[in-house]
Amino acid sequence: MKKWAVALTSGMVMFSANAMSQESVHLYTWTEYVPEGLLEQFTKETGIKVVVSTLESNETMYAKLKIQGKDGGYDVIAPTNYFVSKMAREGMLMELDHSKLPVIKELNPDWLDKPYDKGNKYSLPQLLGAPGIAYNTGSYQGSSFTSWGDLWKEEYKGKVQLLDDAREVFNIALLKLGQDPNTQDPAVIKAAYEELLKLRPNVLSFSSDNPANSFIAGEVEVGQLWNGSIRIAKKEQAPVDMVFPKEGPVLWVDNLAIPSNAKNPDAAHKLINYLLSAPVAEKLTLEIGYPTSNVKALEVLPKEITEDPAIYPTAEVLQKSHWQDDVGEAIELYEKYYQELKAAK
User: Fold this and answer.
1) Which of 44-48, 171-175, 206-210, 321-325 has the lowest mean pLDDT?
2) How many domains is the chain partitioned into structurally?
3) Is 89 annotated as a binding residue?
4) Is 140 annotated as a binding-site member?
5) Which CATH number goes with the domain that contains 241?
6) pLDDT digit string (tens) for 269-285?
7) Is 237 flagged in the annotation as binding?
8) Is the Cβ–Cβ distance between 208 and 3 less than 8 Å?
9) Residue 199's Cα: distance from chain center in Å?
């Protein structure tokens, strides 16, 4: 998903251990998914240096890989679930060799074999994202927000922050209307747009670049946030909490996959196995809050994370959740209406 816009110098960071000619593997992932020191142990263990490039959005990643064609450039990428299905369908992903990925046995089976990649033929899940309604605990109570429709209430005029993402914003209107958040029906998408125009007077801002910052600074008191963002806010001791409405959140999973044009697939398998391993998964969730797919890491993570229902959705919430999926060419219609929504007053 679209997340923090912090840029790495020249788009990449190199971790080297030995000579300039040593083997390397190219990782293209979200900026916050590579906190300081995360990859150094991999280089020590394997002698392989990791070249990290910043992934700005799924759309940008997709376009870059299309342009590269057979030339390649990345060995491991981190597509969100609905882009896994799209890229696999278009022959852009390499089939994984599960015999080289023993970490699979440590992954939560509830995260595996999902419709977007049956049998995990092309990808393995890393982190789970769930958007909810965040609120300032000094001004509101969680019981005030039971439905996505509550954001439309007149009392929140000029107070609501939405995530700056067409699908995330349309999801709440579609759920409010009782529609499928993955609809490709132009008439239903238009109806959702018209519903969002009714919400527009309440919208103070759109933000996906570390959206917790506005809550931490006290600039916003109500709005959409991802569960990882709530972890960031709570680490800063901000008076913020989050609830998941009765219609459920629309979940996404960021995965690890190998492009079909990867130059070093053997090293790519090693890196995926490392990134999903319990020690690394634990460190990453501690740093950025998103729930990890590794059950061994889950066992040792602090309860302030794993038992916080705003960060780790409960079984009840997960049961009524929806999975974000590829909407094909309909994405152009979503984006068109979304730009019109942002320009509206």
Assistant:
1) 206-210
2) 2
3) no
4) no
5) 3.40.190.10
6) 999 999 999 999 999 99
7) no
8) yes
9) 25
